[in-house]
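Supplementary Note 3. Input sequence used for the single-chain structure prediction.
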Amino acid sequence: MKKLFLSLICLAVLVTANSCKKKPDEPSVKKLSDGTIYTVSQLRSIASCTNNCTKRFTAGSKAYLIGIVLADEVSGNFYKEVYVRDRTGQGAIRLDFISSKSGFFIGDSVRMMLDGYDVNLNSGMLEIDSIDYEKAMVKFGSGANPQPIQLDLTQITPSNPYTNYLCDLVTINNVSFLPADTAKMWSDAVGQMSLNRIIQNCTGNQVTVRTSNYASFASLKTPKGFGSIMGIATAYGSTNQLVIRRTSEVNMNGTGCVVYHKKDWNDNSLTSGGWTQASVTNPSVMWTASTFGTDEFAKISGYISGNTNSENWLISPALNLSSAVSPILNFRTAAKFTGNTLEVYVSTNYSSGAPSSATWTQLTGFALSPNNPGTYAWTPSGNVSLNAFKTSNVRIAFKYSSTTSASTTYEVDDVIVMEN
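The predicted structure, written as discrete structure tokens, is reproduced below.
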């Protein structure tokens, strides 16, 4: 009897202990069909409303979101959050929790009660904040294998912006890390700082890869090759970001293009990225960032109420080509009106100030837009070899000059230095 009594006590303790462990609820299919199911598209419309409309679901409205978990907290790169693609497969949302270790994992099917919660847009990302997942969410399935959206950075256009993919799982193809971010730690676990690394495609389009210092792979190093990377598309302010789930989803073992620098003036800033200009003669004639239609570019003209004498240089930041194999320069120009031809130079010892303070080598063998008669027709330069300048502190410069008898107007765009 004593042994039986002890056995019953142990059994009771075991049952009680197990009952204290939180398990995601598993409601029946019937319960899942109750109420109104909202899609991510519908929630985004609510979150973006500006006509004095409410963005909060009132208590008792029986509003729900159903979807598949795309990213969880397991690797440490996400904290107190999961990303969920709705059941239509046409959009995703970030769900922020009031505590961590929710017990929801990649591939779980979940339902969230929206009653009492606001839907908001944060840097374009659809999100619901401060969720008590124990009360608002249930898991009713697991083992799904959500597939990423296949994406090439050339697809990111004004008509198809990165915001179309925010919060969703994507694979970005045909990219590599910037040379400065290659074979570097994903993040700083020792200094406890999250870090940004940059990936780019062959034409210099870029996305920031953001990694938490709490990620389990923070001290591992970024790959050296060319290929694809999978993660959650996010944003911070106007910066497009990608947050990976694990390093096994980064496949950059191939060979491909390496871009050392790109300047396209799409930010409408002449000097962003470290560009400068140096006026030798007539500081009234300056390079400016200009726009025509959907094109942004650098522009200069020596015509100021008449033709003028001028000399002005537009100079790139210092580029490190010391590890380059076959670097090339490519750009395009448009021109109108007769005058001196635009010249292009390279220096390996310029730092700042007057161009005459350094040694410059003039480049030849490239195409320029015709300036006589000239119609502002964009003309690609073709590939210009930089094999003679495989060192650090390489700068590219566009030298413009005009006279009192003739002043060509030049436009320069899409300057890129990359491997051939």
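The helical segments are 2-19, 29-32, 40-47, 133-136. The mean pLDDT is 90.
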